[in-house]
């Protein structure tokens, strides 16, 4: 996403929260190569949607993956651990 490429990934783990359905990429409902390939074809044939997802992805990375955010989240984890 940081490179301006919308993602196509499986809806497992934390990916749905990161990608958002049709916001910064496309989530595959099942682990199915045919479904994934249809999403690739869709994005290749819809450059305006692909561009919108790409710019949303870059914005999300910029807003959520900076060094300050990372350090704050790590510090919060250590504080919780030390408090217990």
Rounded mean pLDDT is: 93
Structural class: mainly alpha
Shape from CA axes? elongated
Model regions low in confidence, pLDDT < 50 over at least 5 residues: none
Strand content: 5-15%
> Biggest β-sheet, characterized?
2 strands, parallel
Number of strands: 2
Oligomer: single chain
Order of helix and strand elements from N to C terminus: EHEHHH
Helix content: 55-70%
N-end to C-end Cα span: 36 Å
Radius of gyration: 16 Å
Topology overview:
Elements: E1 7-10, H1 15-19, E2 25-28, H2 33-45, H3 47-64, H4 67-83
Parallel strand pairs: 1-2
Provide an overview of this structure.
The protein has 4 helices and 2 strands, in the order E-H-E-H-H-H. The chain is elongated, with a radius of gyration of 16 Å. The longest helix has 18 residues, at 47-64. The chain has helices at 15-19, 33-45, 47-64, 67-83; strands spanning 7-10, 25-28. With 84 residues, it is mostly helical. It has a two-stranded parallel sheet. It has one domain (7-83).
Concise summary:
This protein has four helices and two strands; from the N terminus they run βαβααα.
Pick out its properties:
elongated, 4 helices, about 80 residues, single chain, two-stranded parallel ribbon, 2 strands, mainly alpha, about 65% helix
């Amino acid at each position: 996403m940081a490179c301006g490429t919308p993602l196509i990934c499986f809806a497992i783990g934390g990916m749905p929260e990161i990608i958002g359905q049709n916001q910064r990429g496309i989530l595959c409902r099942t682990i199915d190569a045919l479904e994934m390939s249809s999403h690739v074809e869709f994005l290749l044939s819809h450059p305006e949607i692909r561009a919108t997802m790409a710019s949303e992805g870059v914005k999300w990375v910029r807003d959520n993956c900076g060094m300050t955010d990372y350090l704050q989240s790590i510090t919060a984890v250590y504080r919780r651990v030390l408090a217990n």
